[in-house]
Write the structure tokens for this entry.
Amino acid sequence: MYRVVKWWYMTLIPITKARGILGDLADQVQGNDYIILTKGGNPKVALVDIAYLTRLQNDLSKLYKKTFITPSLLPFTREFSDAEVASWEENDVL
Amino acid sequence: MKRIFLDSSVLFAAVNSPTGGSAKLFTLKNVTLFVSPVVLAEVERNCRKKLQTYHLDRFFYLVSLCTNLDQQPESLHIKHAQKVIHEKDAVILAEVKQSKCVIVASLDTKHFFTKEARAFLKPTHIMTPKELIELCEK
């Protein structure tokens, strides 16, 4: 007997046990629900709805392909402190 | 058309808060908003680090409403700026000087609104978004 752990929208199941029921597991993954297959008790791979994966990849590439950050400009930039961001918010009130 | 340079504080605040004065600048008529590559890189870096993913979308949207200046930081300008402002702000002050805009909008009242910084930037005026909105709505 193996233990299937369900946590929020994901299910954990050992790869060895998943082999025989792969078809059933593939039917279970839908939208944000995915199944994590474990090996030696550790997460190894995931069964993910292909539409969800494609959407995720598209969103990420959209988000990351655009950038104004270039290595030559980075030394001229700095990280804002929380205190200065708070003071800007205060000064920005109309 | 007034040429207004947005410093990092204003662009970051506009991304962070859609109800503040900085965000309202993007709705003003008869103004052209300018940003430099350094400002863009700095604000994007901080958006990615400090804000949520949807803020980054908003950042790119707001940037699309601005004119991007084709200028690179110049060490001579930065050196001059370091004499009148805190070192951390010298790069942006030098960027403003290079931009030749009429007005620079900033929320950093502590460092940018000093006599020395104003004299350095002359004839460019330093204003907060609130002051700028009042001026444009007169």
